[in-house]
Amino acid sequence: MRRVTLTQYLIEQQRNHGKVSPELRLLIEVVARACKAISHAVSKGPLAGIGDAVGSLNVQGEAQKKLDVIANEVLIEANEWGGQLAAMVSEEMDGPYQIPNRYPKGAFLLLMDPLDGSSNLDVNISVGTIFSVLRCPEGVTEPDDKAFLQPGAKQVAAGFAVYGAATILVLTVGNGTVGFTLDRELGSFVLTQERIMIPEDTQEFAINASNMRNWGAPVKRYIDECLAGKTGPRGKDFNMRWVASMVADVYRILSRGGVFMYPCDAKHKEGRLRLMYEANPMALIVEQAGGAATNGQQRILDIQPGALHQRIGVILGSKNEVERVTGYHTQQ
Ligand code: F6P
Ligand code: MN
């Protein structure tokens, strides 16, 4: 069997499909290399004191874990010198990180959630890294927040690594969604899911049900109908899963279908997840795999962001279910 590595995949995308420039290829390879280092650190578990709080809060007001900070540093150190980037932003930093003057600057912007789901670290449940790549606007040499505020449809690449039983890298460069598994002996990501397609229908939903009393009527209606099972309006039984690590929940949906929801509710009025670091990259990955992603009202990838750390309601996964929940919102 021919083993296709990430490098080979990217070169083929460059040669045969014109989807990837040499600079973008290098950038993605550097991000993947950083993910390997983070995967290694995560796998040390309590031996490396992972899950320990560092005593600080990030810009979102959440307690930073030692590994949140380490993952952010690993990604910055790996990416700052290569010459592909004009600047980076991260869920863990207040504003854009400028490329130091001693290094050349490039044409891309990198956005990242260095360690998604990190509240799961101390209980040994999967966490991951989410990233998104945009083009730096023409003529901008010191990108400020505004340079990053582009709708998700402008992403030239997006991906995430999930550090689970296996470390898996999911990627899209706008030509479908593919998955690679880390071969730890060889140290390379090997193509294992060549064309990920999310089934259009599903019998599985993912939502944090502890927010039920805060949900709006459309979400409540959808979940009630699922829970009613065979004898209810849907005429079938539904299963529920909630890992509370977006990377793990989305990976499951890419693997076997499902609908993932973190909607706006009375407590999370703007939503819980971040548009730039979580919703946009996941929306592109899911759409490229034949799924859909909305905030209940409109396609996530069409939304014009207003702020770097903006939050948003998210409904994504199997197309027919996402369209149904979105319809419950828009037909009110
Ligand atoms: O990064 C935010 C996040 O940890 C996601 O990975 C996950 O889907 C969600 O928050 C979990 O939220 P909750 O703690 O409300 O279940
Ligand atoms: Mn996150």
Structural description of this entry:
This protein has 332 residues and is an alpha+beta fold. It is built from eight helices and 17 strands. It has helices spanning 6-17, 22-43, 66-80, 145-148, 217-227, 246-256, 275-288, 319-330, and strands spanning 53-57, 63-65, 85-90, 97-98, 108-116, 127-135, 157-163, 167-172, 177-183, 188-193, 204-206, 239-240, 259-262, 273-274, 292-294, 311-312, 314-317. The protein has an eight-stranded mixed β-sheet, sandwiched between helices. A five-stranded mixed β-sheet has the order 12-11-13-17-15, with helices on both faces. It is globular. The mean pLDDT is 95.
SSE sequence, one letter per element: HHEEHEEEEHEEEEEHEHEEHEEEH
Distinct small-molecule ligands in the complex: 6-O-phosphono-beta-D-fructofuranose, manganese (II) ion
Cα-atom radius of gyration: 19 Å
How is the largest sheet built, in terms of strand order?
4-3-5-6-7-8-9-10
Mean pLDDT: 95
Largest sheet: 8 strands, mixed
Query: Which structural class best describes the helix and strand composition?
Result: alpha+beta
Number of strands: 17
Put simply, the count of helices is 8
Helical amount among residues, as a percent range? 25-40%
Low-confidence stretches: none
Strand content: 15-25%
- Cα-to-Cα separation, first versus last residue: 53 Å
Rough outline: globular
